[in-house]
Amino acid sequence: MCLAVFSRLSGQQERVLTYDETVRIALGQSYTVKSFQEEKNSMHHYFRYRQAMFRPRMDMTLFAPQWNENVIPVQRADGVPVYNSFGTMQAGGNLQFTYPLPTGGNFALRTLLYRDNQITTLPLQDYARLYNDQAYTSVSLSFSQPLFTRNTLDENLDEARYQFERTSSIFTREQMNIIYRVTEEFYSVYRATKIVEIAREKLAHSQESLRVARLKSQTGRIPEGDVLISEVDVATNQADLSQAANELERRKDEFKQLIGLDLTERIRIVTDLAYDTFSVDLKKSIDSALNHRLELKEHEYAVKLQQIELDRACRIRELSGEITAYYDITGVSTLGSGPTQELFQSSFNNISDRPPNRGVTFTLSYPIFDWGRGRERVQQETASLRRQKLARENMEVTIIKEVRDVVRSVKEARSRLAIHQKNQDVARRSYRISTIRFENGDLSSQDLSRLQERLAQARLDYLDAFITYQLTVADLKRKTLWDFKNNISYLRENFFSSSL
User: Fold this and answer.
1) What pLDDT shows up at residue 192?
2) What residue ranges of the chain have pLDDT lower than 50?
3) What is the pLDDT of residues 457-467, one digit of tens each?
4) Nearest to 238 by CA among 209, 191, 202
5) 468-496 pLDDT per residue, tens
């Protein structure tokens, strides 16, 4: 059950977090999740972009103005060329509607309308200037269709789909990885917290031992050297406590950065040392991993993407063709000068007088000899395709090996945890009895200090065994994507949404 409790501490709010709460925060706020989410969004928009390539589009271009002046040579049969100066000022634009065809071709309807003010300077006539104003109107319909080749619209859409699906798979896999990393860092902070508690308890015990030793020394029941040893123990434990506290703060900063919290926020994590035990079937684990591990799907997408690159390479040396056709009607004003409205009206009238422009072109293209460039490119992409397939096969073997190893690790960690739990109980009872013996004078301070160290080490060993078990269970979950406790897949639709 998630918990987010705030308590007053040193004038600041301290946020108390459970494991479930930290996972929820990390899945919503961590840099890693946000980064892969943006990558997924990027590929989603790229896929939508490729889908939009199948839809019509309308483009408009305005040129207001388009001005040019240059020198034009005029060849003469009886002398050297004459260089006239020619200038033009155009203002207008065009509008084009393009309708893509499912076959990879397209229809395009285009209109062009502009006014052209021309000036010509004649050096042979004392640089006299001739002025001419025109209006130009055109409406055209064109058609284009590639032949004997792959439909690149479909190919680009397939590529975008595979890229998006692969990125989505990576995003889901990274969510599982971040859960494992949060588990790892959560218990790392918890361990550092417990080390501080153990160090504080050791300091308190050593201070109490020093107090008792001083009382006994005053009555002559123990030598003065035992008092000096107890003083050294207190100083050592104070230094250990300071070092443990600093290490805890470093761990907290790393943990806050991982899950996406502000570094200035005060946090404290809580958990209990209870653990679940469940049976793990090796065959079930392997089957679940082979059916659900996202790395296999990612390799499948990589194979499909590489197949597209191979198809593109093969087209370098394939026969290709294209058929194009156009039909347009054009009008040019014949007045030479006048208001813009009259010039365009003249160009409209000229459309009916001027015959239309039209044409059909059928082209074939085939590379006869390219010095082996196409062949080598195909061999390159073929080798890359074989490598992707080998990587997919090797990943399957790797997954089986990882699952076999993690199942063994879970069983081993569970056995060690039970042993260290018993050892901790024995060390705690022994220290309790030894404390009574020390107060009665039957045990020296050195012996009590050794027993205290033994208890602290037993507690730390049990904590390490508990953390190791929790991490191996978390590793089992991410490597099999199966919840053995509830017997369900972690890829169910509401898993990550419920975690958020």
Assistant:
1) 92
2) 1-11, 497-500
3) 888 888 889 88
4) 202
5) 998 998 899 888 888 887 788 877 655 55
Q: Which two tokens stand for residue 461?
A: 């060993």
Specify the residue for token string 């899945």. Answer: 27
Cα 278 to Cα 7, 127, 409, distances in angstroms: 36, 102, 14
Residue 214, classified by CB atoms within 10 Å of its CB into exposed (0-12), middle (13-18) or buried (19+), is middle
Helix (H, G, I), strand (E, B) or coil at 368: coil
- Using a cut of 0.90, tell me whether the model's pTM lies above it: no
Q: For strands 12-17 and 266-269, give the pairing.
A: parallel
Tokens of 22: 């930290």
Show the tokens assigned to 418.
């039970």
Instruction: Specify the residue for token string 């061999």.
Output: 379
CA distance 445 to 437: 11
Token pair recorded at residue 293: 């591990």
Alpha-carbon distance 2 to 21, whole Å? 5
Q: Where are the domains positioned within the chain?
A: 4-54+164-269, 87-101+105-150+320-365, 282-314+386-491
Measured in whole angstroms, the distance separating CA 305 from the mean position of its chain's CA atoms is 18
How many CB atoms within 10 Å of residue 291?
A: 13
**What CATH code would you report for 4-54+164-269?**
1.20.1600.10
